[in-house]
Amino acid sequence: MKVIITGDHAGMTLRNEVKNVLEELGFEYEDTGADCKSSVDYPDYALPAAKRVASGEFDRGIFICGTGIGMSISANKVDGIRCALTHDVYTAKATRQHNNSNILAMGERVIGPGLAHEIVKTWLTTEYEGGRHERRVEKMMQAEKK
Ligand code: RB5
Questions:
Q1: Residue 28's beta-bridge partner residues?
Q2: Which of 36, 98, 117, 133 is catalytic?
Q3: Would residue 65 show up in a list of annotated catalytic residues for this protein?
Q4: Which of 45, 62, 99, 102 could form a disulfide with 6 if both were Cys (CB 3.0 to 4.6 A apart)?
Q5: What is the full per-residue pLDDT of the chain (146 aa) written as tens digits?
Q6: How many other CB atoms are found less than 10 A from the CB of residue 75?
């Protein structure tokens, strides 16, 4: 599993927790996030990283900003992306099983590192169920083509 991590200045600390999980699971990753505390614009980080997931260069992405909202809205503008903004373990699991989400967004100003750790671990290790969900996911993806 190859994972791209990115984030703006407001997501730096939580991004380090994400790296802990990836190292624990032995997954390969690249961090393209902002590396300083000066203010940057989240679309400048989310859009290029989302395109690298959509192209197949990475299997998944984990995007962090202050709320996770800017990152998730930006990522979902890219064809082929299903980005889930998630701040609890239940929806982290469900969005993999039902939506086959390929990017996870979280907000550093919303949750702490302990919960983020559990969310990331759950999201990375839960399989897509397919079956009845295929049709629904396909309908979402077709909407991008119109
Ligand atoms: C930055 O202040 C903040 O707006 C950004 O990190 C994010 O929360 C936007 O959605």
A1: 2
A2: 98
A3: yes
A4: 45
A5: 999 999 999 999 999 999 999 999 999 999 999 987 799 999 999 999 999 999 999 999 999 999 999 999 999 999 999 999 999 999 999 999 999 999 999 999 999 999 999 999 999 999 999 999 999 999 999 998 87
A6: 30
